[in-house]
Amino acid sequence: MSAHLTEWTLRRLRAGELPGGEARQARSHVATCAECQRVLHGLEEEQARFEAQVPFERFAAGVTLKETETKKPAARPRVNGLLVAAAALVLLTVTVRPFLEPESTNRLKGGGASATLRIGGEGPQRAVLPGDTETVLPNERVRIGYTAGPHAFILALSLDDTGEVSPLYTTEDQRSLRVEPGDGRHWLPDSVRFTGTGNERVMVLLSSEPLELEVVAARALRAWEEAGHQVSEMGPLELGGEEIDWVLHKP
C-alpha cells in the first residue's frame, strides 16, 4: 500500500473487524508508515478519553434490570416494575465493536439541549447514534446522559416489540424528573440492563413542564400500533418539548 489508510480502515483494524488478508495488509502498512501509526495512536487515545468520561465503575455502581417476557401485544399500556441492584459486577473480556464516533450525541433544536446513550460492560464502551439500532449483549448496561438546554424536566422510558412499556427514569409518582442544575452534561443515575430478546426502543423526553408517565406510555403504545407493532418503525410521540430515541437489539 503506497497511500495512507483511511481513518475508517484504521478504526476497523483496531476493532478487529477487517478480514484476515486485509488486516494483514493493513498491519504491514502501518508498521512502516509513521502517519498511519500517528492516526492509530490517536484513535487509542480517543477511546481512552471516551471511557474516562464515564468510567466502568460508574456503570457498575447500580443496575436497573428490565425484565421482558414474550407476550401477545397489549390492548392498552402495560408498565413494568424495575429492580435496582447495587452489587459489584465483573468486567468480562468479550470482543465487541468499539466506539466509532467522537461523540454520538444528538443536538436537539431546543437551545443547546442534547442527549446521549452509552453502552458498557463487555469490552470497550461505545455510544449509540440517535435513530440507530445497536446490539446490546446480555451482560452489557446502558447509561443515558443529557444536556437540558431550556428544559426543566426529563423522563425516560422504553417499549419493546411485544408492547411492554417500562419506566426507566421517573419520579415515585411516575412523572418527569427535574433536571440537574447547571449547563453541562448530566448522567441519569445508575445503569440499565435490558433482559429478554428482540428490539427495545429507548425514549428520552425533555420538557418545560413535567409529563405524566401514563400519558407518555399511552402515546408510545399508539405510535407502536401505528408502526405495525415494530418499535424500529415508530414515529415521534409529539408530546411537545424534545424527544430523542434509540433502538437496542437484544439477541
Concise overview:
The chain contains five helices and 15 strands. The longest helix is centred in the first third of the chain and has 20 residues.
Topology:
Blueprint: H1 7-15, H2 20-32, H3 34-53, H4 56-60, E1 63-66, E2 78-79, E3 83-85, E4 106-107, E5 114-120, E6 126-128, E7 133-135, E8 141-147, E9 153-160, E10 164-169, E11 177-178, E12 186-187, E13 191-194, E14 198-207, H5 213-226, E15 242-250
Parallel strand pairs: 1-13, 2-10, 7-15
Antiparallel strand pairs: 1-3, 4-5, 5-6, 5-8, 8-12, 9-10, 9-11, 9-14, 14-15
Explain how this protein is built:
With 251 residues, this protein is of the alpha+beta class. It folds into two domains: 7-53, no CATH class; 56-250, no CATH class. The protein contains five helices and 15 strands. The protein has helices at 7-15, 20-32, 34-53, 56-60, 213-226, and strands at residues 63-66, 78-79, 83-85, 106-107, 114-120, 126-128, 133-135, 141-147, 153-160, 164-169, 177-178, 186-187, 191-194, 198-207, 242-250. Strands 2, 7, 9, 10, 11, 14 and 15 form a seven-stranded mixed beta sheet that branches. Strands 4, 5, 6, 8 and 12 form a five-stranded antiparallel beta sheet that branches. Helix 1 (7-15) crosses helix 3 and helix 2 (20-32) crosses helix 3. The chain is elongated, with a radius of gyration of 20 Å.
